[in-house]
Structure formats: C-alpha cells, structure tokens
Recover the amino acids of this structure.
C-alpha cells in the first residue's frame, strides 16, 4: 500500500497538536514538525545548527534549501517508512513543490492536505480564554468554565487595561494564562501571520485537488472521526 503522507494545517487553537497525535497513534506514522526539528538542534554546536537558531530567534523563516534537507533526512528514518504527518511544513510554495517531487522520486505522493477549519473569532477565543492549573488541567472562560470563576482586575496604576483572572472554585487556586495568550494583540498577530503564510499554499494545493477541510469547531473526538473518514475516502 502507498504511504500515508498528510500535511496538517490549522490556525492556532484548531486542535492541530491533538489531532496530529491521534493520526500518529492511529496510523503508526510519525508527527514531523519542522519547528520541533529545528528546536531539537539547539544543543548542536555545528555551524548549520547555530545558523538555524539565529534565524529562529529573529522570527524569520529558515531557507527552503535547509528546511527541505532537514525534512528529507527525517523522512528517511525507518519510522517514517509508511508515511508521516507534516506540521509547519511546507511553509512556502517552493517547499511544497520540492516535497512533491521528492515523494515522486520515491514512488510516493501526497495523500491529502488536511485543513482544520475554524472561524477566526473562535480561534481567538480558544487562545484568549485558555487558562491552566498547576497540575496541567486546561479550562476556557468561554467554553469550559464550570469549575472556575473569573473576574476583571483593574491595573493598580490604571496604566493598562483590566487583567482577566481565573480562579479554581474548588481550591481557590489562581489559574495561569500563557503570556502570549493574555495579549489580544499578539493572538491576532499570530492568526494573521498564519493566514498570510498558508493562503498561497492552500491555493496551490487546492489547484491540485488535495485540500480536505475538516470542521474543527466540533469536539475533539468528532474531529478525529471526520479525519478518519476523510483519510479512508482519499485512500480508497
Ligand atoms: P513553528 O514551531 O512551526 O512556529 O516554527 C518555529 C520556527 O522554525 C519558525 O519561526 C521558523 O523560523 C522555523 N521554521 C519552522 N518550520 C519552517 C519551515 N517549514 N520553513 C522555514 N522555517 C521554518
């Protein structure tokens, strides 16, 4: 059977991480995230690894040439013999074209581009409303707030807008928001960057009939079931 090569795309908050783990476990193929691969090179001291760390720190993209080489090396590991879930890659039409011809040279092809569809206001609320307890339990002030109490707390000097604070009702524990989730501006900027980089890719893959949209506003299990159905339909 041909390998299973899935490109997974979705705005932050669309559940991409959870669904990548589902596909990985369900189909036995590795989750290949170029961001993770580059971060894992942090401890390497060679000049290529150092160069990559500098580029990442500056917030720019690593060149297509380097990124493609890192992806190729990863896809040639034994655990990727039956395919892979690609996450954060491709990020440019040049990477997309390279990937297609690389897979072709191995007698393989892309199975599908899975797009986890979520409207942007929902994506915003999933990030902005997210709070976590010290034990790792996750809540959301908009959608999962049964056990928590939340309130706006005025800035003492009235220099900044009120802060949103969530407390666990049962224990009084103050819940934590990731710093980059607490800033509405930063969230909007992340969503905007996502849209700008993915739009040309979506159009590119759309023209090849590879894009499969999955409604990511549904509960996690329903989204997983829909992904299964989509994969079954494109493989048959
Ligand atoms: P991520 O975790 O996907 O946001 O990636 C973190 C950083 O790694 C990005 O800001 C880029 O500098 C780099 N990176 C990850 N994936 C790619 C890619 N496909 N092409 C170029 N640079 C990438």
């Amino acid at each position: 059977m041909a390998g299973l090569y899935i490109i997974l795309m979705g705005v932050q908050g669309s559940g991409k991480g959870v669904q990548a783990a589902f596909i990985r476990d369900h189909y036995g193929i590795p989750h290949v995230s170029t961001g993770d691969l580059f971060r894992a090179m942090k401890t390497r001291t060679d000049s290529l690894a150092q160069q990559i760390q500098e580029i990442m720190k500056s917030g720019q993209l690593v060149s297509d040439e380097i990124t493609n080489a890192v992806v190729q090396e990863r896809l040639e590991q034994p655990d990727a013999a039956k395919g892979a879930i690609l996450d954060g890659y491709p990020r440019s039409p040049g990477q997309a074209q390279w990937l297609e011809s690389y897979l072709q040279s191995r007698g393989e092809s892309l199975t599908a581009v899975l797009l986890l569809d979520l409207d942007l206001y929902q994506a915003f609320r999933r990030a902005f409303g997210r709070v976590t307890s010290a034990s790792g339990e996750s809540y959301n002030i908009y959608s999962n707030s049964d056990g928590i109490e939340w309130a706006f707390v005025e800035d003492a000097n009235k220099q900044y807008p009120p802060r949103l604070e969530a407390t666990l009702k049962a224990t009084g524990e103050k819940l934590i928001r990731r710093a980059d989730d607490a800033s509405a501006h930063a969230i909007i900027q992340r969503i905007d960057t996502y849209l700008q980089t993915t739009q040309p890719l979506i159009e590119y893959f759309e023209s090849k009939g590879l894009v499969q949209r999955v409604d990511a506003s549904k509960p996690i299990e329903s989204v997983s079931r829909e992904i299964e159905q989509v994969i079954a339909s494109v493989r048959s």
Notes: The two ends are 11 Å apart (CA to CA). The first helix runs from residue 16 to 27. The mean pLDDT is 93. The longest strand covers residues 4-10.
